[in-house]
Amino acid sequence: MGSYYDIDAILTDAQKVPCTFELEVPGLGYLDGNSGGDMKKGTRVELPLWLGEMLAVSRQLGTSPLVTLDLPTALSPRVINALKADPRTVDLRSLAPHFYDLGARILELFEEEEMVEVLSETFKKRAAEIADHAHNPRGALGESADFLRGLDETERQLFRAAHDSAKSMKSWMGEMKK
Amino acid sequence: MEMVTVVPRQRLEGLELLGGPTVPLHPPHRASLPLWLALLLKRQRRANILPPPWFHPTALTSILDIERNKTDQFSPPPPLPPPATGEATTSPPFLLSSTADAPDGALPYHWLELGEILLDAAPDDVVDPDTVRRLMRDLREIRMAKIRAGVVVLDGSGMVGLKGVGGMEVGEGRAFISGVVDGLRKIGTSREQALREREVEEGDDAYDPVENGDEMDL
């Protein structure tokens, strides 16, 4: 994990997080669709995670940070509550294509004990479901199709791994029959 | 190198193999041979393979019952032999688990591989091959379902109990299980970090008096 060229890590860093500017920045208004103007203090804009993190964390001693980060909508309390209620019905992919990677990055920045628990539980419960789907393909129809479409990128890789194992096993068994 | 018991139909002198010499074959005396040689002789109709006792419908049925009753663990592996007195100690993959005098109440490490091979190469030597084939499939499915369900109790550091799981099953589950563990560790990174920092802090506190004491001595 964490190679410089890891495309998943790059895409994770490109996901938007809400930031609030704490200072007025001259000439930065184009970020808010106000080209040529100034960035007003207190404006909320969605910035890529890597930029927001830089601006929020890399401050010099004694000065207030340039922006403050908020939780992205994908990890809002509403989503966390939905995950607590039933992890299987949440469409993670529409929330964030790299949901867990984003979660891990956000947890580095925020102290959220509960979120770690919820995300781990979600991942485990959904992983068991994924394995079942990978081994007993019930066709791309109905409920299972909805679930599989809602997998985030990590879960898709997991599905592929489980599916490939089952497939290799089947082909070995098939070769035996010849 | 799995050994199986064969009942030869023809005489064959002992062979000097890389894995050691084989016993000379005198029909109708049973002999233990490496699986590949047994398969070769079987194909040439020069021997019959005697399936291991656990590969019998009744034995498989009782193992299947154990699997059904214990939902949170696998049927136990065959018992280990009493510790050898010499330097030759053996552990599951190298035990003679598929000869005619192997224990009958447990699935050995290579049960799936050996079972499939025997069903394929020597169905006429297996007692009631259709029932055995069905039982093997049931066993495989119920055990794979357990492996898959085991991830729910995982945490980033621990492992599901895989006692009694065969080599092929471990191989099949490996990609999935390691993927889950990787994912969990990634999510738990921040918590681990926090724990470690706390430990370091507490460690510092604990060492402080000692350091102070050292300074006093100086």
Automatic annotation (TrEMBL), chain A:
SUPFAM superfamilies documented for this protein: GINS helical bundle-like, PriA/YqbF domain
Segments forming domain GINS subunit: 75-174
Subcellular location: Nucleus
Subunit structure: Component of the GINS complex.
Keyword annotations: DNA replication, Nucleus
GO BP terms in the entry: mitotic DNA replication initiation
Gene Ontology CC annotations of this record: GINS complex
Protein's job: The GINS complex plays an essential role in the initiation of DNA replication.
Gene: PSF3
Pfam families documented for this protein: PSF3_N, Sld5
Domain DNA replication complex GINS protein PSF3 N-terminal: 5-57
Family: Belongs to the GINS3/PSF3 family.
Entry protein name: DNA replication complex GINS protein PSF3
Chief location category: nucleus
Highest taxon above the source species: Eukaryota
Annotated organism of origin: Glutinoglossum americanum
From TrEMBL, chain B:
One Pfam family matching this protein: PSF2_N
Domain GINS subunit residue range list: 103-187
Compositionally biased region (Polar residues): 87-99
Gene behind the chain: PSF2
Subcellular location: Nucleus
Span list, region Disordered: 70-99, 191-218
Organism: Glutinoglossum americanum
Compositional bias (Acidic residues): 200-218
Predominant place of localization: nucleus
Annotated GO CC locations: GINS complex
Family: Belongs to the GINS2/PSF2 family.
Protein name in the entry: DNA replication complex GINS protein PSF2
Description of how the protein assembles with itself and partners: Component of the GINS complex.
Ranges in a coiled coil: none
InterPro entries: GINS_A (IPR021151), GINS_bundle-like_dom_sf (IPR036224), GINS_Psf2 (IPR007257), PSF2_N (IPR056784)
Keyword line: Chromosome partition, DNA replication, Nucleus
Biased composition (Pro residues): 75-84
Function, in words: The GINS complex plays an essential role in the initiation of DNA replication. Has a role in chromosome segregation.
GO aspect biological process, one term: chromosome segregation
The UniProt record lists the keyword Nucleus: yes
Ranges where the DNA replication complex GINS protein PSF2 N-terminal domain occurs: 1-50
